[in-house]
Amino acid sequence: MQRIVMKIGSSSLTSDNGGLDRDRVSFYVREMISLRQRGAQVVLVTSGAVAAGFRHIGYRERPKQLHEKQAAAAVGQALLMQAYQEELQLHGVPAAQILLTRSDFANRRRGHNAYMTLQELLARDVVPIINENDTVSVEELKFGDNDTLSALVANLVHANRLIIVTDTDGLYTADPRTNPEAIRFERVEQIDEDLYAYAGGAGSSVGTGGMRSKLDAARIAMRGGVPAFVGKVNEPGDLLHAVDGDGKGTYFDTHFHALPMKKQWLGFHSTAHGRIGVDAGAEQALLEKGSSLLPAGVRSIEGEFHSGDVVEVIGPDERLIGRGIVNYDSDQLRTAAGWSSDEVMKRMEVHRIEVIHRDEWVTLRS
């Protein structure tokens, strides 16, 4: 059975004046029903709470201040959920609301609870409808857009594909609305800085995500073993085509396997307490051989950390390689950096010789 996570942004759900467009909600629900009728499970990640609510409490345009946006979201989330529930009820399908924040993923117990809840809802044939909990999210911890949230959810539930709906049919070499010679990327296997250079700025006035945030989401999903699609779903049957591989957009393929929950937490949700620089040999061992990081490969240490903390590891070019749980205090590692394993065993007392064991490591470079 296929499990599909679909993300719909504010600009796809709201009218030009900022209100919720019930016809668009109805259309997307029908698309999801078509997918369910084929036997797939669907998880919906939806934006639109602020956009749906701000005019109902007297704002003439989308508010800018955090407390204003949170007030609008408190009103709009109820309107948004009511619209989805009413449309799904027409097809005899129950819906469930789940509001998440970044701290729900950062806390491993809460993340596990969210996973178990989603598993039970899907087993009961319910459509989970997920949004960020805007009313309680603080600005510095917000996802910023639901593109990232959708990728984290896709990894969490081990989805077969992430579908990110946008108003353009994929990623282009230039803006196709202004440049008729723009060429669409049909399939992408690696997201690098060259690809980011093609992504534009912010999206519409009612949304918060542009193409860059969708590339961020695709990269997270790919690392979690979930292929992604970014493109249009605006005509009947488009969602089925997107899932089947012939949709109107760009496909992001992955060679990675699904990550267990511990490594999802380690790679995407944990807080890094320091940074370790390694040489080219250690970088190759980590990326290509699946080896642990040993003291001999360490060249620099930034920050203060303790054994058991999460740290980032960078290569000679200062690009991020991945994250892991370190077995040394930072002061110990500054002393042991560059030493052979035999020398460390003779001269220091450490509970494990590996700086980071491969079982407590996740690669973040494709």
UniProtKB/TrEMBL annotation:
InterPro entries: AceGlu_kinase-like_sf, Asp/Glu/Uridylate_kinase, G5K_ProB, Glu/AcGlu_kinase, Glu_5kinase, Glu_5kinase/COase_Synthase, Glutamate_5-kinase_CS, PUA. ATP binds at K7, T166, D167, T208, G209, G210, M211, R212, S213, K214. GO terms for cellular component: cytosol. Its EC number is 2.7.2.11. Keywords: Amino-acid biosynthesis, ATP-binding, Cytoplasm, Kinase, Nucleotide-binding, Proline biosynthesis, Transferase. It is found in: Cytoplasm. The keyword Cytoplasm applies. Pathway: Amino-acid biosynthesis; L-proline biosynthesis; L-glutamate 5-semialdehyde from L-glutamate: step 1/2. Residues 274-357 form the PUA domain. GO terms for molecular function: ATP binding; glutamate 5-kinase activity; RNA binding. Catalyzes the transfer of a phosphate group to glutamate to form L-glutamate 5-phosphate. HAMAP family: ProB. Belongs to the glutamate 5-kinase family. This is Glutamate 5-kinase.
